[in-house]
Amino acid sequence: AFGGDGDFSHGQMVRKCNAVLANGYGNLNQRVCSMVFKNFGGEVPRPDALTEEDEALLEVGYGLVEATRGDMEEYRIHKYCESIIRAVNAGNQYIDSQEPWVLRKTDLDRCGTVLWVEMEFLRCLSIV
């Protein structure tokens, strides 16, 4: 974990950040973008009505700048990283629970909404 006195190592931080970015964020980005490309001709679909789950993930995304601002201003990099890790995990949990790869066969409109939510969430992540 980051943040404890005396247990910081630059190498540990780099490995942790790379693992989260490559495995979490990178894989999420790849999954979402490839589904948009394959199923919607590379254009981000327009969403239908949003569910509570959709709105909960968007709330995480829209709140990231404000949630991390103080940590960056006060140089609490470990807290900033923890917030990003939690957000990436939320994005992965959402896509796993919504299963757009199943929805594309049964409900293309809902699939499009799920992918729109994820694309919007990824946009928010890219800002922070």
Structure description:
- With 128 residues, this protein is mainly α.
- The protein is 79% helix and 0% strand.
- The protein contains 6 helices and no strands.
- Helix 4 runs antiparallel to helix 6.
- The chain is elongated and about 50 Å long.
- The model has no long low-confidence stretch (mean pLDDT 90).
- What gross morphology would you assign? elongated
Q: What portion of residues is helical?
A: over 70%
How many helices? The count is: 6
The biggest sheet amounts to: none
Q: List low-pLDDT spans.
A: none
Order of helices and strands: HHHHHH
Strand fraction equals: under 5%
Query: What is the overall pLDDT average?
Result: 90
Straight-line N-to-C gap: 21 Å
Care to count the β-strands? Answer: 0
Derived structural class: mainly alpha
Any key phrases for this structure?
single chain, 128 residues, mainly alpha, 6 helices
Topology:
Layout: H1 10-40, H2 52-62, H3 64-73, H4 77-98, H5 100-106, H6 108-127
Summary of the model, kept short:
The chain has 128 residues and is an all-alpha fold.
